[in-house]
């Protein structure tokens, strides 16, 4: 092998590594932005559907201070629990929508009782933003509510590509109940 063949093979090796190096370099350079975009990433291949929104919502719920139980807080009845379990087994999307309705009701009640919205049924986004802007709910609670709203929207309007499992419906219910406790604590204070 002479010098020209050596340089040609070296150049060919470097050009074949250009795309992997560029990809790794891009991920490293934009890692901060990718961290903020990752919760919005949703990948689907055949029957596999991966979404990071519930994971992000669980992180935000963990960052909230422990929820204070109010004196008027009532635990769900066994009938309500059974109904959710039955609905989640048949249609996790419908179960998520049912829990989202409860969450919306709690947020609307807080927003109306505090006088931050005028209409009896503002959009969930409007109510949450108004509550946060007035300092009634914390930024962490607002972020959690935003994630729950987005997941609920996907369940309601996602079409055939919005496939949820019973486990995801259970996770959503746990997060929504935590958010409802936060909202109820704010309503009581």
Describe this structure in words.
It is a single chain. This protein folds into two domains: 1-40, no CATH class; 53-188, no CATH class. The protein is 69% helix and 4% strand. The chain is built from nine helices and two strands. The protein has helices at residues 3-16, 18-29, 31-37, 53-63, 78-90, 92-113, 124-133, 139-157, 166-188, and strands spanning 42-45, 48-51. The protein has a two-stranded antiparallel sheet with strand order 1-2. The radius of gyration is 23 Å and the shape is elongated. The model has no long low-confidence stretch (mean pLDDT 78).
Number of distinct helices: 9
Question: What separation lies between the terminal Cα atoms?
Answer: 82 Å
Mean pLDDT reading: 78
Instruction: Walk across the major sheet and give the strand order.
Output: 1-2
Rg, alpha carbons: 23 Å
Overall number of domains = 2
User: What is the H-and-E element order?
Assistant: HHHEEHHHHHH
Contiguous low-pLDDT stretches (5 residues minimum) are: none
Biggest beta-sheet profile? 2 strands, antiparallel
- Total number of β-strand segments? 2
